[in-house]
Amino acid sequence: MTREKNTFRDYLFILWIATRLGFTSFGGPVAHLGYFHEEYVRRKKWLDEKAYADLVALCQFLPGPASSQVGIGVGIIRGGILGGILAFLGFTLPSVIVLILFALALHQFSFYDASFIHGLKIVAVAVVAHAIMGMGAKLTPDLPRKTIAIIAVTVSLAWQTTITQVIIILVAAAIGIFFFQKQEKQEQPARLSLGLSKKTAIISIALFFILLAVLPIVSRITDWQWLAMFDSFYRSGALVFGGGHVVLPLLEQEFVPTGWVSEQEFLAGYGAAQAVPGPLFTFAAYLGTVIGGIPGGLLATAAIFLPAFLLIIGTLPFWHALRHVSSVRGALVSVNAAVVGLLIAAFYQPIWTSTIIETKDFILAAILFSLLAFWKLPSWVVVIIGLIGGILLPYVPF
């Protein structure tokens, strides 16, 4: 697809379409990709079927929020880097605003012990269990990958630190390079035509790795809280493989043990994030607001999505060649199995251990899980039912 020079009106149109999607895209990453296909491919014809399929494959290959990266990629293909920024803002800001307001209300009225907050925490149990079921079936279909997942669970729970999770991902990638190179053979990808130069791409990739390496050092030297926040959110966004739910263990290890956010605040926000449209990564806006008010929420949002921007800009021009590298594909196969293990570990600690305390908690969680997994209800409907269930739980006589 050849990209023509865009006018101011073209950029406004990109923003308008993305914002409309941001207000209506419920259901998680897979549903988002369906909404994008309907809007960008079938209705607007901004790119063809092959180009869209290849863009989705690239974003599933990269760490970060896949659906957001697809939206950014479509914006870049349509309107260059500015188009990517506008597509991101439109898709992301509606849920960011709602979660910032929720965090402010939670702080202002101090209803941390309210029964509906406990309902939100039980929603988180059901949602993460459902994510594990789907991801486990897809990403750990054989014994070697199941073994990698179990080892990841064991190591993650035995040594609960952020560096442990990074080591698990790196070791899994090394295992994949040596043992999984022949897995997941890829079909011939389409060539994406866009206005990004390879020089811009190289600068973007270099900046991604420089920030990943330098931010932790500088934040420790300066001991500045805002920089430490930016570093934690950036690192979480840079190391997430496998979808938005996998950001949960990374963020939990960054902010709960340090005392910046309590377990109760963390899980309440995660449950609330299921009720809003758009990407699950906007959970960072809630956490940032709890820590530092509205400026903290905006900083957290920028930090956690910045790696997604840098990676999509840095890899689009090279994707056609990169996709044929067997060692890269093998590493991804193994890393995806490891992140299933990381998500199981997060499901147990802190979600299960701090939420399922009584029999009636388990019953409500089982009902919500069934509504998601078997009845196929939208996540926002399950959140509403969870809120009502949380309010009613104190009156259940057992």
Can you walk through the features of this model?
There is one protein chain. By secondary structure, the protein is mainly α. It has one domain (114-395). 76% of the residues lie in helices and 0% in strands. The protein contains 16 helices and no strands. The model has no long low-confidence stretch (mean pLDDT 87). This is Chromate efflux transporter.
Q: Which range best describes the helical content: under 10%, 10-25%, 25-40%, 40-55%, 55-70% or over 70%?
A: over 70%
- How many helices? 16
Got a strand count?
A: 0
- What's the rounded overall pLDDT mean? 87
The value of Rg in angstroms is 21 Å
The quaternary structure here is: single chain
Shape: globular
For the biggest sheet, the summary is: none
Strand content: under 5%
Count up the domains.
1
Distance between the termini: 62 Å
Describe how the helices and strands are arranged.
Blueprint: H1 8-24, H2 29-43, H3 49-61, H4 66-109, H5 115-139, H6 143-158, H7 162-179, H8 198-222, H9 225-238, H10 247-255, H11 263-273, H12 283-315, H13 319-322, H14 326-355, H15 359-373, H16 379-392
